[in-house]
Design a protein that fits this description.
With about 350 residues, the chain is α/β, with parallel strands linked by helices. It has a single domain, classed as Alpha-Beta Barrel (TIM Barrel). It is built from ten helices and eleven strands. Strands 1, 3, 4, 5, 8, 9, 10 and 11 form an eight-stranded parallel beta sheet that branches. Strands 2-7-6 form a three-stranded parallel beta sheet, with helices on one face. Strand 6, helix 6 and strand 7 form a beta-alpha-beta unit. It is globular and about 50 Å long.
């Protein structure tokens, strides 16, 4: 049965409007919920890479057939990220957000809210250059380090040592560097193509169809564009109807950002619009199964893979000599209708 965007969106909107603060950590409608079937806690010290959309030596999938991981790149953007969070709450499920550093510093309150609602936050570089391999090693390392430092600073707490390459353009050299920093990277198995499809119904239909064909996997979305937020209720309802189960990712330990970058990033954070996060969600809501129980946790500790004969060193100093410069296109210009970023995707292999 094809799920219509308008009908599902209206149902989710009604849920979000009527949910009381006292019930915010409970599942409002268990019959329609996806829940979280289990949690995978990852020891990232070996610098593993997960997902099929890579030509590199990757880990075996930690997912069973018909299990999915929900992931979102490029945000946060409040007018997109917040409705996505509302939908995830309505379906009582959790996701992993790979945030861009300059976006997190632009909207620190939203970065905090993602964490406050019980989701996992990793990073997606500082400014989303679409192909890190085309940069010098120093500049690529700076993008990685500045991204982690910025998101952690915006969050005002620890974040996961989880990273996703923009455009899924990885390399053994950069994976070796991530390995030296105890950081895991995640590619994908199912690409929603929401970067290029503007019709929410088409995004939903494509995502569910590919998830069925591939028997689940790591799903890629972007909390950057409104059609994604509009498509998500139908996507989650479609996954529920097809019998999929959601697996939530968690890190064994937080990332350790390079503290030397804080002095450069603090002035940017100081200019961000201030909005106090009202703690009406109460304690961080833990993931729950459909029956309301705590999900089982699978511990994952992959062995290190040899990627290069010499590993690029992780030095506790600035890895790029050039001064920090922000992109000309800002979140404000995006709100005025100009494209802030067009993230490209690569076909799954």
């Amino acid at each position: 049965m094809r799920l219509r965007i308008r009908d599902v969106w209206m149902a989710v909107s009604a849920f979000c409007a009527c949910a009381s603060p006292s019930l915010a950590t409970e599942c409002k409608d268990p019959d329609k919920a996806l829940g979280v079937s289990r949690v995978v806690e990852i020891d990232t010290s070996a610098g593993p890479i997960f997902g099929t959309a890579t030509k590199r030596d990757k880990e075996e999938s930690f997912l069973a057939p018909d299990e999915v991981v929900l992931t979102f790149d490029d945000g946060p953007v409040p007018w997109v990220t917040e409705p996505i969070l509302d939908t995830l709450d309505a379906f009582c499920t959790k996701a992993t957000f790979f945030s861009v550093g300059e976006m997190a510093l632009s909207y620190p309150a939203m970065t905090k809210e993602v964490l406050a609602r019980g989701h996992t936050v990793g990073t997606h570089t500082w400014s989303h250059p679409n192909n890190l391999k085309r940069l010098s090693l120093d500049k690529a390392k700076d993008q990685i380090e500045r991204g982690f430092a910025a998101v952690a600073l915006a969050a005002s707490t620890g974040i996961a040592p989880f990273f996703r390459f923009p455009g899924l353009n990885d390399s053994d050299e950069l994976l070796a560097y991530l390995q030296s920093r105890n950081i895991a990277s995640f590619t994908v198995d199912v690409i929603s193509n929401d970067s290029f499809i503007g019709n929410p119904q088409r995004i939903a239909d494509r995502t569910v169809k590919l998830a069925v064909q591939q028997h689940g996997g790591i799903l890629l979305f972007h909390d950057l564009k409104k059609p994604t937020a509009k498509a998500l209720p139908a996507i989650l309802a479609g996954l529920k109807a097809k019998g999929f189960k959601v697996v939530h990712l968690r890190a064994k330990a937080n990332v350790v950002p390079l503290a030397t970058l804080d002095s450069e990033l603090q002035p940017i954070l100081a200019k961000a619009p201030s909005r106090t996060l009202v703690p009406f969600y109460g304690p961080v809501p833990p993931p729950k199964t459909l029956s309301g129980e705590d999900p089982a946790t699978t511990l994952l500790a992959p062995a290190a893979k040899v990627r290069l004969s010499e590993v690029p060193p992780a030095e506790d100093k600035r890895v790029a000599a050039q001064p920090l410069r922000r992109r000309a296109s800002t979140p404000v210009s995006a709100q005025r209708g100009r494209r802030h970023r067009q993230a490209r995707t690569a076909p799954a292999t």
